[in-house]
Amino acid sequence: MINTSLSLINFRNHNQTDVVWGDHVNIITGPNGAGKTNLIDALHYLCMGRSFTSSSDMYVVRQDAASFLVKGSFRGNIRSEFEVACSYGRGDGKKLWVNDSPLDRHADLIGLVPVVLVSPDDRKLTGEGPAERRSFLDALISQTSPAYLDDLIRYRKIVRQRNRLLSDTHMYSGEMDLMLEPWDRQLTETGSRIIANRAALVNTFQSYLEKAHQELAGSGLIPSIAYKTFCDTGDDPSPDPARILDLYNSELSRSSERERERRQTIIGPHRDELVFFLNDMELRKFGSQGQHRIFALALKMAQLYFYNNELDDLPVFMLDDVFGDLDPQRTDTVMQMLLQHHGQSFITAAHPEKISGFSASGRNRITSYEVSNGRVEPIS
Description:
By secondary structure, the protein is α/β, with parallel strands linked by helices. The chain folds into two domains: 1-114 and 314-380, 3-Layer(aba) Sandwich (Rossmann fold), CATH 3.40.50; 120-310, Up-down Bundle (Glutathione S-transferase Yfyf (Class Pi), Chain A, domain 2). The protein contains eleven helices and 15 strands.
């Protein structure tokens, strides 16, 4: 997938910016605060419907404006040419369009333009709580499977409804049983499909992770992922949702008293965990800072390789200020991996000298830009 052009109006520090991109590697340089990350954050809106730098759309609007608008033109194999637009206004909320047709659901955008993002926040993947890793796994699968995304949205609604019922202190036990019964059925049916898909993805993803980690680290340490849920999903590459459903129903029944004591749903994929290992060492507990950094980067490179094989359109690959923590050897390794990627890439760099050698060696595939005070200029 190629983003041929991007337009921003009142987006962060960009008043009105229009950029025409190169088809391969796009390097965006400029001082801190100039607006480099804002460009690829705007592109992220057109791919995923949200910012990767801000928790709320309201913080993305230019300070002296009431709304923002982002538009992008794309070219791919499935859709030859199309346009995606995203707007947000204070009081109006967020709206998305594809070829001027409004999307009824924001989820309908996911997967239209597959994207892989590498950013400094990736350190949370290996160092923080399980929610970060579940989010990574869900986003990874959702861009390849609309059915999985629909199940995920449905499951979250079911959990919210069950939690409201469980927290009702005025309801008698028999009445609560009656009210919970239809939600329990939906919970286990939807949740078992989510678990089966997650387990299958982790099994498939292992080989991509090993390849990426070997290229980046070059050591004898073998990375692996253990998927932890309430039941044993086994080593089957395609776990049986029916088997998981039986286990789910049994576990939910055994946990009914605990759920009522805690007044929340305590069994299901919303409590799953991914555990990362290097050989037999659990990374989160015993890994060094360098090992965390390389593992997180390997996860994103593995995601790129996975999409390259699984999708009809190559993903857009974005790297936001990731070279400050990498030594020259690994910087060169990442750059060579980028040159081998046949799709489109975007790199932001506050210190272009770190990638100057790469820029010279790959100049036939590289388009460079400089950003200053929200203005973008091509570099010859």
